Amino acid sequence: MYKINDNYQKLPGSYLFSTIAKKVNAYSAANPDKKIIRLGIGDVTQPLAPAIIEAMHKAVDEMGAAETFRGYAPDLGYEFLRNAIVKNDYQARGCDIAADEIFVSDGAKSDSGNIQEIFAENNRIAVCDPVYPVYVDSNVMAGRTGTYDPKTEMWSDVIYMPCTMENNFVPEFPKETPDLIYLCLPNNPTGTTITKDQLQGWVDYANKAGAVIIYDAAYEAYISEENVAHSIYECEGAKTCAIELKSFSKNAGFTGVRLGYTVVPKELKCGEVSLNAMWARRHGTKFNGAPYIVQRAGEAVYSDAGKEQLKEQVAYYMKNAATIKDGLMKAGYMVFGGVNAPYIWLKTPDQMTSWEFFDYLLENANVVGTPGSGFGPSGEGYFRLTAFGSYENTLAALERIQKL
Ligand code: MLT
Fold this sequence. Notes:
This protein is an alpha/beta fold and 404 residues long. The chain has 13 helices and 17 strands.
């Protein structure tokens, strides 16, 4: 008789955004006349930039002609894309990353869930609390997190680093030494970030502890302050302790197109074993590459026209962030984030729990947000709104919230 991976049985409830979608659909079905504004999941709403569309059209035509047709992509991704990434995302920032340290994928969500596979089952993971749920859930599936306590909503073998307004949402070095440290900066869900000096502190800590930092830089394009690192490799010593995950979803609107990449430096070694070689083996075995058309679209992100158009797109969403932040502050809310990230993190009013506020907002303003407690126990009493809606919807949502 076959056996299942019992670790899946340990997962509490369904994936956060599936739970929210179910609740919103039920409300919508019961109240078909209500116009719901969705500022929950961080999904983009602006169309793909013209430079990207043009590149995709051209690539589609190439796929339709025998001379230019392409089959399987190279394991690590096409060189034209990896070279553009190296030049623009690393060399331009003084980071010494080579094209064979870049692994092109179908997005940072898959990579952030898959990367734990190359580490032993008995590694201890440390996560910020609140945290993007994929980091924890993928480690639960792998059997690395121990037992779940429904009362504390914590896993026995996970090291939690609370990020609350008391510590300005800056994670502190944990008392117990972790093996793998997940950092998402600028942060999802709190929309806050840390300075480059603070990040250097984490790199030094990891190198000393013999730990690996899994650094999710999905929101890097939204950084507006000077003293914030765009890549962890801007920090000295990061190549011996950090893996960086990057997404095209948020900076270029690829949530439905799907493209990302992971950087595994060749200097990152466990004894004599190269993690770059391990990830290359894993990638080659389990992944057949992002589509050619999509990789050409990715290349267009780095063209002059693409850069210009995407700067405008990021500015559009950040105008929404400022609108939400100012509007909530005027309405008397305590508000965080929204300066270097497209997320606004607010304290729920009147001691409401995160889910109570979710229901209150849905029923009274017909606005959907994300309950902070869905990201971890320290998110209780907080709530997230995304700046990825249209400007018109963002304004309308704020008007409704201000009237409550
Ligand atoms: C979020 O809303 O947290 C993100 O959209 C989820 C994701 O990027 O997968």
